[in-house]
Amino acid sequence: MANAPPLEAALIRPGEGSAVPALRVSESPGLGDSPRSPSDRGTKLHCHTAVRYAAPSNTTRGKFLRTLPVLFVLCLVSCVVLIYVALHILPLLGFAPCVDGDLDCVRDSGAFSRGLGELFALLILLTLQMTSFSLAVFVSPGGVPDLSAEEEERLLLHQPAMDHHCPWIDNCVGWGNHKYFMLAVIYSSVLSVYVAATMFESVARAVNSPSETFAVLFWLLFGETLDIFLGIVVTGFLGFHLYLVVKGMTTIEFCEKQFRHYPAYAAEQQSMWTRGAWINFNDTFGYNPLLWFLPIDNRPGNGMHFVPQHHFRSPVIAQNMGVGSSGGKEL
C-alpha cells in the first residue's frame, strides 16, 4: 500500500468486518454534498468554483468571475514586487537615484553587491512562488478513477473526498496539487518576510530625509505596509495548513470536527489517518529531503490507496448508513 495522501476516495465493501485499508473517505458528506448514488460510481471528480449568486460557472461570465480572485492575487504580488525593485533594488544598483535624492548610497562600496544579492534572492523566491502557484492553479486535484463492473458491484459507498476548494487558485486542493498549494503558501510567506525586512532600509532612509519627494515616500510606505499585511495573513494561513499536514487531516475533516453535529466523531481528537507528524509531512512533501521545497511531485502512490493508522469505527458513516457493530460491519 502507498502512503496516506491528502485527497482520497472511499471503497467500503459490504459484509467485511474490519476497517478497509483501501481508499480514504471523508467522514461525512463534505460541505453540503451527499454520498454518490450507484449510478454515479466510477465517474471522475470534477471540481469547479461555484459562482452561485452571480452566474453559472460554465458561462463566460461565470468563468470570468472565477478568475477574479486569481487576478487579484497576481496584482497584489506584482504591486509589491514592482515597488520593491523600483524604489529599493534599482537605487542600490545605481540605475536610479537613492531615496534621499542623491547618489550617496551608490558610493557605498557594498551597496551594489548588496543590491545584486537581494535581487538574485528575490528572483529565486519569486520563481518558486509563481511556479508553485501556477501548478496549484492548473494541475488537477485528482478524482475517482473509472471502475470495473466487478468493483462497482462490490461498492457500498463511493464518495470522493478532497482537502478544500480554494477560490484564490480557482481550483480544488487535493492529492494532485496539494504539495504545490503548500509550496505556494510557504514561498508567499517567505517572500513577504524577505521583502519587508530588506526594504525597511529604504523606507527608513526616506522617512528621515527632509528632501525626499512625497511620491517616493508614499509608495515606499504603501509597499511596506501592504507587504507586512499580506505577510501576516499568509503566515497565519500557512500555520493552519502546516498544522493540518502534521495531523494528517484535510480542511474538510477539520471543519467536520469543529462544526458538524456528530458528538462521537468530534470526540475523536486524532485523525484515523495520521501516522505521526514525520510520516504525515513526508506524505505531503515526498520522502526525498532534496525535493521537499521544490515544485516537483515525487510522492509515492496515486492518491487513492493507503493504510489506516489503527482499527477504527467511524460513528459518522455508521450513522449515515445505518450500520455498526450490531450489524457485523465495522468501518
UniProtKB/TrEMBL annotation:
One Pfam assignment: DHHC
EC number: 2.3.1.225
Membrane topology qualifier: Multi-pass membrane protein
TM annotation in the entry: 68-87, 119-139, 180-197, 217-244
Reactions catalysed, as given in the entry: L-cysteinyl-[protein] + hexadecanoyl-CoA = S-hexadecanoyl-L-cysteinyl-[protein] + CoA
Protein name, UniProt field: Palmitoyltransferase
Comment block on domains: The DHHC domain is required for palmitoyltransferase activity.
Gene Ontology molecular function terms on file: protein-cysteine S-palmitoyltransferase activity
Family listed: Belongs to the DHHC palmitoyltransferase family.
Enzyme class name: transferase
Record key words, sorted: Acyltransferase, Membrane, Transferase, Transmembrane, Transmembrane helix
Organism encoding this protein: Neospora caninum (strain Liverpool)
Subcellular location per the Swiss-Prot or TrEMBL entry: Membrane
Residues of the Palmitoyltransferase DHHC domain: 162-258
Chain segments carrying region Disordered: 24-43
